[in-house]
Amino acid sequence: MSDADAGTYVEAGEFRRDTNYITTRITADGRDGYPVEPGRYRLVAARACPWANRTLIVRRLLGLEPVLSLGLCGPTHDKLSWTFDLDPGEVDPVLGIHRLRDAYLARFPDYPRGITVPAVVDIPTGQVVTNDYAQITLDFSTEWTAYHRPGAPQLYPEPLRDHIDEINAEVFREVNNGVYRCGFAGAQDAYDAAYTRLFAALDRLTERLSTQRYLVGDTITEADVRLFTTLARFDPVYHGHFKTNRSKLSEMPVLWAYARDLFQTPGFGDTIDFGQIKEHYYVVHRDINPTGIIPAGPDLSNWLTPHHREELGGRPFGDGTPPPPPLPAEQVPAIP
To answer: How far apart are CA 296 and CA 56, in angstroms?
Structure first.
């Protein structure tokens, strides 16, 4: 990617994320004009992106693969759009487009915001339905229940929703977005403040997870999915690239064990492609890494070491069961 094609990410002062997304929802009753229908929609994601990674995990855990197809963009993109670089001819075989931007413009010809993943596209019209990543996974859990696999876990159980929402709000504000607040800070004081906030939040999470296996209750929930995708990227990219370097994840024993526990749980680690993750951040963010050089390290084999979190109890899938192995076309490279 040339510098001319790259976007700009560092902001003067503090980084502020645009959180205005397409809020149309796909629901069981179709109240927004898009009813849940098997085969009608295509989830467009990228393994590099932590926000999209959530949808890959939840789709796997709930067993929605037979009813919701998956289009995967490549790990890099230019300032215009994510692109389907991994497909033959660099064209998505179902949507027939090279740029995800085309699906956005098909519905909103003057779409003024960034072209983001994940996005759900209506296959018959080729139009984007939603890119509201936080709502997409909640709707997978609550609106697509007729198509959940037998044994699908309860990721957003009604009795715990208020608690999950509370944890999710803090994790988004301080951790998911906190690493970006560090990485995209354009002034020393903004970076210093972001760094302090991030590690204060990680310390609070350490305290919480030192006595319980999962964030809310004794099973995996939506809250764990949202924290995991940031932790999985911490040592490969955030620690160096985003300067979140008080300590590596692997030097924070509680969070490191928690992350490995999830990584080794079917549906989590089998959605992670560390190669694509590193390529995305180090190549796309040329205003942070002008050379585009991708670091060789770190050693990732330690993700497979024992974590001993089962000693805290808990049942990963509650009364449910693990998902089956990924579809052959959706497998990720094994850790060397």
So the answer is: 26
Q: What are phi and psi of 130, to 5 degrees?
A: -155, 150
287 within 8 A of 4, measured Cβ to Cβ: no
Tokens for 182? Answer: 């560090």
Can you give the length of the chain in residues?
336
Residues 6+ apart with CB under 8 A from 93: 87
Residues 250 and 257 sit within 8 Å (Cβ to Cβ): no
Q: Tell me how far apart the alpha carbons of residues 287 and 290 are, in angstroms, rounded to a whole number.
A: 6
Q: Is 180 an annotated catalytic residue?
A: yes
Cα 208 to Cα 178, 200, 204, 310, 327, distances in angstroms:
18, 13, 6, 16, 35
Contacts of 311 (CB under 8 A, 6+ apart): none
* Each residue's pLDDT tens digit, 213-266: 999 999 999 999 999 999 999 999 999 999 999 999 999 999 999 999 999 999
How much is the pTM? 0.95
Domains and CATH numbers, the chain: 158-330 (1.20.1050.10)
For residue 22, is pLDDT > 90? yes
Distances (CA, A) of 84 to 46, 74, 189: 9, 6, 38
Q: What's the longest Cα–Cα distance across the chain? A: 54
What is the crossing angle of helices 188-209 and 161-171, to 10°? Answer: 150
Q: Which secondary structure element, helix H or strand E, spans residue 45, and what is its range?
A: strand 41-45
Question: Is residue 73 annotated as part of the catalytic site, yes or no?
Answer: no
**Identity of residue 333:** P
Burial (0-12, 13-18, 19+ Cβ within 10 Å), 50: buried
> Which residue of the set 49, 214, 281, 282 is catalytic?
49
pLDDT value of position 18: 67
| Residue 152 tokens, joined | 């699908």
Q: Is the dihedral of CA 174, 291, 303, 247 positive or negative?
A: negative
Q: What confidence score (pLDDT) does residue 17 get?
A: 60
Catalytic residue among 41, 104, 133, 180: 180
